[in-house]
Every structure is written in structure tokens, then in C-alpha cells.
Amino acid sequence: MFFTVPTLLTWARIACIPLIAGVFELPLAAEVRNLTATVLFIAFALTDWLDGWLARRLNQTSAFGAFLDPVADKFLVCSALLVLVQLQRVDAIIALVIVGREIAISALREWMAQIGASRSVAVHMLGKVKTTVQMVAIPFLLYDGRLFGVIDTLLWGRWLMILAAVLTIWSMVYYLQKALPEIRAKVR
């Protein structure tokens, strides 16, 4: 189902992702750009929850929606990471670890689906925790200021992004370990 309400929300999220990068090209005060990008990122991240909720509520779940939703999440995270690397708020190594893992696990899932073993690399709680940490770290880093006059979002965002990188590696190792028996069976 290409044109259900949840799928259209996912498409809209993908189409709007360049706005986050575009904000930093506007002739606005740094604080305004930071706040605008943060609000946009949070709004787009919330549509991820909303489209899933609507799909279940309206009984409009589909294989295409299940495919497109994580693609939109990866676009959102990767584009935000590129912006943050350009702004020197995230180290390129951390961004490479996160983006590299996304590419590797996506390729692994595709291959496992082709050999009929996609269940061995199904989404695990570790991957969900990794995504949650990323989705908290990124707005902190985009904001780059003091939240409520107390919380140094750049400091907390950097620590959370390091934690996200550790969880990224850990989850990749987990998925590879789960896939290894199937890979060995098919390679023989």
C-alpha cells in the first residue's frame, strides 16, 4: 500500500529531511538555526512513532510500510549526523561507525532475506535502545546550548553519541553472531 496515511507520513518525513541541513544555510542567528533544526528533528522523529501508531490503529500495516519506515529513520539519522560532522559537533569516526553499521546491517538483512533466514536478524531490543540513544543525542547536539539554563546539551549530546556508537558496534556484533550459523550453513 503506497498511499495510506501512515505511508504518506513516512514519505513526508523523507521529503522534509533536507530542511534540517537547509536551516544551517539561512542567514539567521546561530541560536535560531540550532533551535529550528532541533524542533524539525524532533518533529520528524515523532512522525516515526505517529505513522506506526496510525498504521496499527487504521489497520493499514503493509510490507512496503515496514520497509520504508526504517529507511526513513536511517535517512533522518544519517543526514543529521552529516550536518553535525560539518558543524564539528560529532567526530567523523563516530558518524562513520554509525553510518557504516547501518549499511552493513541493511545489507546483511537483505542477504538473509534472500536465503530465507531473515528471522535470525530481526530487530532486537539492543537495536531499539541504540536508536533511542541516537534520537536523544542528535537533538541535544543540534541545539548546542543550555537547556533550561542548566543542561549543557553539547556535552550531554557528545556523551550520548559515544554511548550510541558503543551500542552501534554491540548491536552489529549481536546481529552478525545471530546470522553466522545461517551464513555458515549456506556457504558450505
What does this structure look like?
The protein is mainly α and 188 residues long. The chain folds into two domains: 1-88, no CATH class; 90-188, no CATH class. It is built from seven helices and two strands. The chain has helices at residues 5-16, 18-23, 30-57, 63-86, 92-114, 125-143, 153-187, and strands at 146-147, 151-152. The protein has a two-stranded antiparallel ribbon with strand order 1-2. β1 (146-147) and β2 form a beta hairpin. α3 runs antiparallel to α6 (125-143). The longest helix is centred in the C-terminal third of the chain and has 35 residues, at 153-187. It is globular, with a radius of gyration of 18 Å. It starts with a helix and ends with a helix. 30% of the residues are buried.
Envelope shape: globular
Counting H and I runs of at least 4 residues, what is the number of helices? 7
Taking the sheet with the most strands, its summary is: 2 strands, antiparallel
**SSE pattern, N- to C-terminal:** HHHHHHEEH
Strands side by side in the biggest sheet: 1-2
What is the radius of gyration computed over CA atoms, rounded to a whole number of angstroms? 18 Å
Q: Which regions have little confidence, pLDDT < 50, spanning 5+ residues? A: none
Q: How far apart, in Å, are the first and last alpha carbons?
A: 38 Å
Please count the beta strands (DSSP E, at least 2 residues each).
2
- Number of separate structural domains: 2
Helix content: over 70%
**β-strand amount:** under 5%
